[in-house]
Amino acid sequence: MRTAAKVDANQPEIVKALRKAGASVQPLHSVGSGCPDLLVGYRGINLAIEVKDGAKPPSARKLTADQVEWHAGWRGQVAVVASVAEAFAAVGITETKSAREDVGASASGLNRHR
Description:
The protein is an alpha+beta fold and 114 residues long.
C-alpha cells in the first residue's frame, strides 16, 4: 500500500501566489508514480509543475527515479520549481513588487524540462 503523498513545505506558498496572480491550480501530489505536484493553467496554457523545497540542500531536491521517468515520457510542458519566483517564471507571470511582498517570494533560476 502506498503511503500518503508528501507536500513540500513551500508548495502552499507557491499555490497561494499563483492563484493570487490569476492562475488556476490543481494539486496533483497525491497521484504518485512520478506525476508532478501541480497542474497550472494561465492565459490558456497548461503547465505541470514539480515543486521542490528550495530550503533543502540540492541533493535533497533531485527528482526521484519515478519523476525522471514521468518527465522523460511527458510530451507536454513541465517545470521544476523551488520558489514563487521560479513558478511565476515558468508560467509566464510578470512578478510585481506587491506579489513578492505578499507571499515572500525569493528569486532563483528555473529548471525546465520537456
